[in-house]
Amino acid sequence: MGYIVHNQRQYVDGDGLDSRLLYVVTPAETVAGPAPRGGWPLVVYIHGGGWEQGNFRRGEEMDVMARPIFPAMLSAGYALAFVNYRLTGEAQWPAQILDCKAAIRYLRAHAGEWDVNPDRIAVYGSSSGGHLCQFLGVTDGDARYEDPSMGCAGASSRVSAVISSYGISDLTAWRKMNDHDFMVGFLGAGYTREQAWDASPIAHVDGSAAPMLLAHAQNDGLVNWDMTPVMERAVRCAIGDGKVVSWYPAYGGHGSDEVFQSPLAITLYIGFLARFV
User: Fold this and answer.
1) What is the pLDDT along the chain (277 residues), one digit of tens a residue?
2) What is the distance between the terminal CA atoms of the chain, rounded to a whole angstrom?
3) Which of 204, 220, 206, 242 is nearest to 167 (CA)?
4) Could you count the other beta carbons within 10 Å of the beta carbon of residue 185?
5) How far apart are CA 263 and CA 249, in angstroms?
6) In this structure, is the dihedral angle defined by the CA atoms of residues 139, 140, 144 and 146, taken in order, positive or negative?
7) Of 265, 7, 4, the residue nearest 126 (C-alpha)
8) How many CA atoms lie within 13 A of 32 on its CB side?
């Protein structure tokens, strides 16, 4: 299929960090038709990797065709943005969410340069990326998680919708399921339950939350799935049943492409975007 990969950008002014790069991919008009009035709606992909890995390298891009969901979104008329953020080897929380919000502000402030609609921005992520997407969806306007000095201070970091696949919604409910404790790198050695709770999306749910699609396999061996229905109920109570979609397949582990990149998943995700973005 046809698409246009635009040059990488540094989303923090005067900053040369590879961990603060992003780039945009737009549909080719021959495939998706002309851009709609106001510009392409945008889906921002925030990668997982335990907040420890997953960034692309300067001068390199992700293979857009590697995961079926990306070409499907492009074909459906959505532009994509791929975002790096500081990993835990570089900085601890809340650096990750500060970076993601700065990236959203940058994308909104510069939307016209890619023919993107600044009022139609959704986020999509899995695992720790799902955690960051959920956090973006529940902290609009929370000054504790904004750093205007990073740039584009006049733009909003609000998102229109969130798609979270097997995301971590409650760090205090995350049962350690192997010998590696991601939380030490994320919050620091000796972190408290209060710190873990405040870094959890569920702690910030209120009536301003964005519509959410929450997906999680019941046999996930890395992030226990039972926290996600609790997040679902909290968001439903805050913003109403009509703005929340959930999907809990019995099998799918922690990110099986056979499940989370299946035609069923793609139809569900794009249908959700069509309703809310």
Assistant:
1) 689 999 999 999 888 899 999 999 999 876 667 888 999 999 999 999 999 999 999 998 778 888 999 999 999 999 999 999 999 999 999 999 999 999 999 999 999 999 999 999 999 999 999 999 999 999 999 999 999 999 999 999 999 999 999 999 999 999 876 667 899 999 999 999 999 999 999 999 999 999 999 999 999 999 999 999 999 999 999 999 999 999 999 999 999 999 999 999 999 999 999 999 9
2) 23
3) 220
4) 17
5) 14
6) positive
7) 265
8) 23
Sign of the CA dihedral with 46 first, then 50, 51, and 56 last: negative
Which residue pairs from 31-39 have beta carbons closer than 8 angstroms and sit at least 24 positions apart in sequence?
Answer: 31/1, 31/2, 31/3, 31/74, 31/75, 32/74, 32/75, 32/76, 32/77, 33/77, 35/115, 36/77, 36/117, 38/117, 38/119, 38/120, 39/111, 39/112, 39/114, 39/115, 39/116, 39/117, 39/118, 39/120
Give me 55's structure tokens.
Answer: 């960034």
Overall pTM surpassing 0.85 (yes/no): yes
- Could you tell me the sign of the dihedral formed by the alpha carbons of 253, 256, 254, 208, in that order? negative
Residue whose structure tokens are 């791929």: 82
